[in-house]
Amino acid sequence: MNKKGKLYLVATPIGNLEDITLRALRILKEADIILCEDTRQSIKLLNHYEITNHLEAYHKFNEKENLEKILKRLIEGEEIALISDAGLPLISDPGSILVSECRKREIPVEVIPGANAALSALQLSGLDTNRFTFFGFPDKDKKKRREFIEEALNCPNTAIIYESPHQLKKTLEAIKNKDPNRKLSISREITKKFEETLTGTAQELYDYYSLNLAKGEFVIVLDKGTQKKDQDSSKSIEELLKEYLNNGLTEKEAIKKIAITKNLKKRDVYSQIKIKNKNA
Predict the structure, then answer these.
(1) Using one digit for the tens of pLDDT, what is the confidence trace for 180-202?
(2) What is the DSSP string of the chain?
(3) Do both 31 and 52 map to the same domain?
(4) Residue 237 in this model has a pLDDT that exceeds 90
């Protein structure tokens, strides 16, 4: 019986091409095939280090479609490297389905660590680094985006958000509308020539990017929301419901948020509201 191959999760630079490990370069040279999001992007890295291995596109649009083909190659003994356009594979990028299936079929998986934009931005932020929550990219759907921002703002840990230059102002506007004084940090072009990190309140950074063009990929780091959550938890369910409805949430969204704030089950919040309305 043939020995199974191995899937390597290889970190690539997030900007500066020198930020890659010797081990990562060796694996990329030795792999039978390299799976990447965009061959046009990844070929730049390979050409820089004179790596001639075959590249094959593996992205969110063909991830499920190509799954069985890739698994078959691994089972037959091939060594496959998975990379993303920049940073760690699977982090806001495709790959989790493949790793999950490898685990189920006992195909070896090995990680080759390296640069990561979220953790680099956290280091640069000056905010609490002991506990943090990674939220990734906000949803483009208006309702889901609003829920995403609410969750990040109410997070008791430092919150990390990825954002594109086209959506940055919209996200900052949503944050400052809810909490204009929330401290945050915005990093862009990390490890590149024009690397920049700005810190301030949500209002200050919204004002800045209202006047200045947003260029590059952004990481927003939000100060933890413990203080606001503690203030909200001291309010009654009726007070919170009225406040959240006035802020534009639907009753369903408000009940969900109250349940999180008060550490209750949604059905218990709904029951208390129903009883109050009945007795009113």
Answers:
(1) 999 999 999 999 999 999 999 99
(2) -PPP-EEEEE-B-SS-TT---HHHHHHHHH-SEEEES-HHHHHHHHHHTT--PPEEE--TTTHHHHHHHHHHHHHTT-EEEE--SSBSTTSSSS-HHHHHHHHHTT--EEEE----HHHHHHHHH-S--SSEEEEESPPSSHHHHHHHHHHHHH-SSEEEEEE-TTTHHHHHHHHHHH-TT-EEEEEESTTSTT-EEEEEEHHHHHHHHHHS---S-EEEEEPP-HHHHHHHHTS-HHHHHHHHHHTT--HHHHHHHHHHHHT--HHHHHHHHHHHHHH-
(3) yes
(4) no
